[in-house]
Recover the amino acids of this structure.
């Protein structure tokens, strides 16, 4: 009897240890990021996101620190897509409160957020940024259009309806006799940066809307895959953060005819080295972007987790998020005379600013 | 002649169809002669204007003007209005509609993935005209963002009620296609006799009928066989 009890007890003990060890093992495989020490009390905001918006984010936080006495936030610039991934990991002090993105959050990303418990996201559009095509300053002019750019960099080009063949264009002049006779080379962001998403959505898919052989493909997933797959013969170079400096370094070491896509803000900062090329017949500058003549602009957003915001009774995770939302929607911040406009941000229209302010201050969440 | 009398003479002469100068000269000459009589001169008075004798001419003038006006109006109606309300010929319709870009609604429906399938027209006392659109391609997220931007741009440039109603059609199509399990498979826009829009919605996941299912299975079998042959060919 005693032997049986001992054996039985031993089995139970092994079972209990096995059961108790399971959560630890699971936690090791998918453990969330560790909580930074400054975040344990929820007094410091944690922001992540686009490198393009780094200067805007810093400016807003500096204003809050100076005027509202908030402690400086933890800011990590890792790119829009990586930022959204971290943002959607869940709710808690070990996850970011705010993500700055240089493109609209996709439905698939919203679904991913919801599947990890991030159900309520406040979306704040702060303005626009334009992206253009640049070359080295000593290079020739490349007056590209959507179709010519697509024809240069796509992996496959249509021959007849439902028939595609690999892209064999080697020189810009093969596509358009008016272009210089230089080798086709192009520099683009890596997939985790917001600029890549913008390029795929506005430029590549925009070109596909004009090309009848691709436009008539019924299924969206098949058409998009055909559209955004780029040539893999070494003529396309992908660069990571810091994007502006990487583009400058890559262009410096590349032959003539190498072009890159870059936000206008960065092109202006490096204008002693970079030349902005006309795209679709328009040279992007402040005037052509403000009067909507240049169409390749992207909206810039802050996404805030509603679950982290303290309510008026002081209940919530993180202090200062309401103040951040108020500052990010103030006319003196995002208006035409605001300090973000002086840093290069293109303000949205007055109606959009008012609507954004009203919905953000009421903490209206995304409904898509 | 006082100023009021002058105005009265001018108005009456115009109404009756006389030349004001003729009447004025007759009246002023008579008044001048009266003034001369007062001053003592012996002047022969001319015969006064006989409005009764002139009446048939006046009536005739009025009748002439009236018939000319009626003739002009009839010409306008014949040349313009009747061509508006009678339906156009099928060839003129297809020529104008084939340039869909000319019509903003049709252009946006094109961005929304819809193509014109049919134009139906009836020629008769009450004409009938309708356009039928079918779903030609699914939209990606980028396509929806682009369509939304185009609608906002149209709203900014055309804020009128007619354009708002047209945008409502696009909004309805987008709302149905984006949310839920249904999509707008056909869209019928009736212009005559009364404008209206009919949406036909079908489930996104359609089921194959018996014949289509058999056909699909036959295609898959052929595809499998071809793959097998290809693999055998590539084998050393």
């Amino acid at each position: 009897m005693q032997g049986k009890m001992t054996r039985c007890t031993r089995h139970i003990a092994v079972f209990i240890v096995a059961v108790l060890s399971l959560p630890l093992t699971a936690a090791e495989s998918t453990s969330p990021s560790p909580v930074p020490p400054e975040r344990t009390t929820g007094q410091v905001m944690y922001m992540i996101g686009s490198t393009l918006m780094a200067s805007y984010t810093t400016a807003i936080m500096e204003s809050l620190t100076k005027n509202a006495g908030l402690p400086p936030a933890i800011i990590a610039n890792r790119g829009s897509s990586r930022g959204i991934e971290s943002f959607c990991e869940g709710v808690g002090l070990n996850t970011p409160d705010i993500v700055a993105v240089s493109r609209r959050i996709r439905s698939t990303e919203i679904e991913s957020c919801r599947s990890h418990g991030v159900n309520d996201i406040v979306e704040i559009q702060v303005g626009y940024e334009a992206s253009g095509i640049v070359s080295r300053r000593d290079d020739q002019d490349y007056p590209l259009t959507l179709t010519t750019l697509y024809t240069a960099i796509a992996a496959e080009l249509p021959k007849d309806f439902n028939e595609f063949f690999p892209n064999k264009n080697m020189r810009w002049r093969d596509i358009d006799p008016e272009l210089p006779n230089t080798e086709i080379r192009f520099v683009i962001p890596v997939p985790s940066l917001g600029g890549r998403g913008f390029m795929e959505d506005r430029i590549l898919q925009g070109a596909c809307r004009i090309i009848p052989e691709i436009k008539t493909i019924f299924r969206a997933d098949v058409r998009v895959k055909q559209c955004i797959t780029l040539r893999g013969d070494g003529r396309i170079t992908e660069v990571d953060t810091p994007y502006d400096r990487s583009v400058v370094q890559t262009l410096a070491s590349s032959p003539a005819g190498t072009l890159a896509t870059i936000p206008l803000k960065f092109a202006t900062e490096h204008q002693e080295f970079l030349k902005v090329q006309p795209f679709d017949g328009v040279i992007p500058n402040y005037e052509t972007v403000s009067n909507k003549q240049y169409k390749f602009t992207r909206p810039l957003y802050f996404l805030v987790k509603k679950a982290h915001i303290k309510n008026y009774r002081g209940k919530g995770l993180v202090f200062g998020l309401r103040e951040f939302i108020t500052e990010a929607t103030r006319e003196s911040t995002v208006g035409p005379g605001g300090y973000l406009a002086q840093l290069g941000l293109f303000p949205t229209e007055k109606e959009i600013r008012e609507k954004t302010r009203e919905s953000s201050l009421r903490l209206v969440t995304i409904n898509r | 002649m006082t100023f009021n009398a002058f105005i009265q003479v001018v108005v009456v002469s115009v109404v009756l169809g006389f030349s004001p100068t003729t009447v004025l000269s007759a009246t002023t000459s008579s008044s001048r002669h009266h003034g001369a009589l007062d001053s003592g001169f012996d002047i022969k008075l001319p015969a006064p204007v006989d409005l009764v004798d002139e009446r048939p001419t006046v009536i005739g003038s009025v009748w002439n003007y009236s018939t000319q006006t009626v003739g002009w109006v009839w010409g306008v109606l014949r040349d313009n209005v009747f061509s508006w309300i009678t339906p156009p010929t099928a060839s003129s319709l297809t020529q104008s509609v084939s340039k869909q870009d000319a019509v903003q609604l049709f252009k946006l429906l094109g961005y929304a993935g819809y193509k014109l399938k049919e134009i139906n027209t009836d020629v008769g006392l009450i004409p009938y005209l309708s356009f039928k659109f079918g779903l030609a391609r699914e939209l990606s997220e980028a396509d929806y963002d682009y369509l939304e931007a185009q609608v906002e741009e149209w709203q900014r440039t055309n804020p009128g009620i007619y354009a708002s109603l047209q945008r409502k059609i696009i909004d309805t199509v987008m709302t149905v296609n984006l949310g839920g399990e249904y999509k707008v498979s056909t869209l019928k826009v009736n212009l005559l006799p009364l404008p209206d829009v009919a949406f036909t919605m079908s489930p996104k996941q359609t089921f194959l009928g018996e014949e289509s299912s058999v056909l699909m299975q036959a295609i898959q079998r052929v595809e499998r066989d071809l793959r097998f042959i290809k693999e055998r060919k590539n084998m050393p």
